[in-house]
Amino acid sequence: MSDLRELYQQVIIDHSKKPRNFRKLEDANRTAEGHNPLCGDEITVYLLFRDDVIQGIGFQGSGCAISKASASMMTDSVKGKTRNEAEHLFEKFHQLVIGEGDKAGDPGDLGKLAVFSGVSEFPVRVKCATLPWHTLRAALEGRGETVSTE
Ligand code: ZN
């Protein structure tokens, strides 16, 4: 298990140092901002959402390694997905990071997002990991407001 944990940590560090899709999406038609006051994480999610599909996604912001890596991997994971598919993935991801992943059925759905399973041991980090997803949800709903984890 410790080898796996080390691998997971490496993936998270890699994504936090070289986040994917870390840019403002110029043709975005939806955006939302998220804020985690507990840790100081801030994120803006840009979406090109058309025909019920996330056709393009980017993000910008600053924060801890967990929030950045989570945002990076989230953008990779939801691109090309419908809103329902993205919501489903968020539910599974949320169950994973609060330590209820086993009850969520097939963990295979999560794919590489499984690297965040260790977060469940650090409750204070759960909000860091889920902030990008809450912000994505707000963008999908077209709410022009800032979401806060508090
Ligand atoms: Zn954080």
**How do the helices and strands follow one another from N- to C-terminus?**
HEEEHHHE
Q: pLDDT below 50 for ≥5 consecutive residues: which ranges?
A: none
- Structural class of the secondary elements? alpha+beta
| CATH level-two architecture | Alpha-Beta Complex
CATH class: Alpha Beta
Number of helices: 4
* First-to-last CA distance: 33 Å
Question: What are the defining features of this structure?
Answer:
150 residues; alpha+beta; Sufe protein. Chain: A; four-stranded mixed beta sheet; 4 helices; 4 strands; 20% strand; globular; binds zinc ion
Structure report:
It is a single chain. The chain has a single domain, classed as Sufe protein. Chain: A. 42% of the residues lie in helices and 20% in strands. The protein is built from 4 helices and 4 strands, in the order αβββαααβ. The protein has a 4-stranded mixed β-sheet, covered by helices on one side. A hairpin with a 4-residue loop joins strand 1 and strand 2. The radius of gyration is 14 Å and the shape is globular. The protein binds zinc ion. Zinc ion (ZN) binds next to helix 2.
Outline of the structure:
This protein has 150 residues and is an alpha+beta fold.
List the helices and strands and how they pair.
Elements: H1 2-17, E1 30-36, E2 41-50, E3 53-62, H2 65-78, H3 83-97, H4 123-140, E4 146-148
Parallel strand pairs: 1-4
Antiparallel strand pairs: 1-2, 2-3
Helix pairs in contact: 1-2, 2-4, 3-4
The chain binds zinc ion (ZN).
